Amino acid sequence: MNKQDYLLTCLAEECGEVTQRVTKALRFGIDEVQKGQELTNAERLTNELTDIATLIEMLREECGLWLPVYTTSKILAKKERVKEYMKLSIEQGRLEND
After folding, report:
1. Is the domain of 75 the same as that of 50?
2. Within this chain, do residues 58 and 98 fall inside the same structural domain, yes or no?
3. Angle, helix 41-63 to helix 3-28, in steps of 10 degrees
4. pLDDT score, position 69
């Protein structure tokens, strides 16, 4: 295993941890504090997302791996796509229309 493989493995692991934290927030609430923990699900999710951002930065620095930069235009475009799918979910009766 080389350094790039190692960091990619770590990135995959962190993505799994984000998935776990999101499902905990959905099941128990974003503000819930799991027994034996001090942080809310929101705080723990933030920490996991920070870990992902860190690994992306390390892949750039350590391996010269080009990964997408989060630009305002890309973020705005993604927001629009999510909003379109939200409309579809509302139309299908799967999402409440607030």
Report:
1. no
2. no
3. 170
4. 67
